[in-house]
Amino acid sequence: MTEVTAAPATAPVSPAATARVLAEAARAVDAPDLVLAVSRNGVRTVHTGGSTEPGPVPRELMAYELGSASKPYAGLLLARLVAQGRVRYEDRAADLLAPGFPVHPAVRRITLRHLLTHTSGLPGLPADFYPQAVPRWSTDPYGGYPADRVVRSFLRARPRHRPGTRWRYSNFAVSVLGHTLAAATGTPWEVLLHQQVLAPLGLDATRVRPGPDGTDAVGHRRDGTPVPALDTGGFTAAGAVRATPLDLLTFLEAHTGGAADSPTDSSLAAALTEVTRPVLRRGLRHAHTHTLTWFQHPTPYGPVLFHAGATLGQQAFLGFRPGTGLAVAATATRRVHRADTFVATAYGLLTETP
Q1: Which of these, 329, 92, 64, 101, lies nearest to 207 by C-alpha position?
Q2: pLDDT digits (tens, 9 = 90+) for 164-183
């Protein structure tokens, strides 16, 4: 177990008190590797632990698979490109991907906003994804479904609902968004993400591919068996980001409005503001609020924005309170299961403390 703190700003709760809270929270999570990290106005407290002995690289410096928690990165990228005037939220994806290609009328109406906000009418994954994925569901379900196949599936899709009318979480849609932005800018997704998001925010330990040997956390099944590194195939924008917990805090601190080193680039600053604004409600009595990329919940201390993700053997949680300087990042190297406490524990750190 390791605790690391960094200072230079006034925090409403002392790092020592935060460290005690994190140590207590960690007892509720069973995983080979666990990192719970909190930033309060730039003052960081990081608790690391787990059921296995740490390796030569400290856990807070290992890169963890984010899975669906990659989507806020895709959202910030889109928001910045819009702020730069390179694309518009209402641009139609099919027109950017394959101008003039005959598509279903519903597909023709799908915009970049629809793809990002899970309101495109597309399913969670393409219909023909499952036959190739099921035989290797626990080892490599995505690697055999490349980018060109994702694009073809989109152009041939027959959405069940008119775009903009229903919310349905879709890795398919966000993946299509990634390919569409690459086509619109003439820049590969990985390069575009680095140029527009990772480099400007100083996220040097964040990437979309495995890094050098020994620098990536190893995921585990529920029984503790190691699993191979995730290959997202053509679904890169929806779930391929890998990052260290310290980089996750840097990413979140840029969103909180409480960091001392807020971005000076006007398009990036505008994008960071844009992704925190509520854009839709769904569910019973419209109780669920969403921004472009974050889930938003009310708390006694103000609204919180968050996103969780899971891969074959890892989990991640990102969350913050806009305008307060509070951010929480958490990672674990055990596959999610029905009685899992990881997300609830991380969410509690974000919502149950002043």
Answers
A1: 64
A2: 999 999 999 999 999 999 99
